[in-house]
Write a structure and sequence with these properties.
Layout (H helix, E strand, L loop, with lengths): L1 E5 L3 H10 L4 E5 L3 H11 L2 E2 L11 E4 L3 H14 L3 E5 L6 H7 L4 E9 L2 H5 L5 E5 L3 H11 L4 E5 L3 H26 L5 H20 L5 H15 L1
Parallel strand pairs: 1-2, 1-4, 2-3, 4-5, 5-6, 7-8
Antiparallel strand pairs: 6-7
Helix pairs in contact: 7-8
């Protein structure tokens, strides 16, 4: 399968590294130098312009949400058969359906994950829009090397990631403010408390690998939630 990848930000670069060597991959980024350097590193090809990317069978859009629909509108003008896969969390399947005009078709593939963690080797859960079935299966086969693929309503990932991000950031801000209130002003100490202690405990909780002290805290919190 010939695959195009548009957008080489954090997620785009992670996907390029995961997909390189598993078929023919061609990348495009408005910063052409970035695309050329990555292409040389991964032994893949780089498109000179966006119009060239439609020569691929499938194009993945790893773009900011405001650019995704504009890109699809451009593909519509080219009147060429193309499957477009959107990975931007906040672009809905309905928006894809309403924007893509045959022979361009679009499907959402969303990551319950973080680009930085994926770059370190952690595999995300990937939710592939379940309909239409033929596009869903195509997308699932493409992304199985990247993480754990599930079929469902890809739009629910926006809710999941939003809730997780808000809770994590609330905790980070609260930790910083609490430490400063208690007289801790050293920036390295505060950052380490957030980056290592808090993040490490969150990972341990997700992996069912909490220590005795942390487990007691969880038990206490569960009692409060249940009452």
């Amino acid at each position: 399968m010939n695959v195009g990848l548009v957008g080489l930000g954090r997620m785009g670069q992670v996907l390029a590294r995961k997909l390189a060597g598993r078929g023919k991959l061609c990348v495009f980024d408005r910063g052409f130098g970035r695309a050329r350097r990555l292409a040389d590193e991964l032994n893949i090809s780089a498109a000179d312009c966006l119009a060239d990317i439609v020569e691929q069978d499938v194009v993945i859009l790893a773009l900011p949400e405001q650019e995704v629909l504009r890109c699809i509108q451009y593909f519509n003008q080219l009147k060429q058969s193309l499957v477009v896969i959107n990975v931007a969390t906040n672009v809905s399947q309905q928006a894809l359906n309403e924007t893509a005009e045959l022979p361009v078709r679009g499907i959402g593939v969303k990551f319950i994950g973080h680009a930085g963690e994926m770059a370190l080797g952690l595999e995300p859960v990937i939710v592939v829009e379940e309909k239409p079935a033929e596009l869903a299966e195509l997308a699932a086969n493409l992304f199985r090397p990247v993480g754990t693929v599930m079929f469902g309503r890809s739009d629910m990932v926006s809710v999941i990631n939003g809730a997780a991000a808000e809770a994590a950031l609330t905790a980070a801000v609260q930790i910083e403010k609490t430490l400063r209130f208690q007289g801790v002003s050293n920036e390295d100490m505060i950052k380490s408390a957030i980056r290592q202690v808090a993040a490490g405990i969150l990972k341990a909780y997700a992996n069912n690998d909490l220590g005795p002290f942390a487990q007691k805290v969880v038990d206490s919190l569960n009692l409060k939630w249940n009452n």
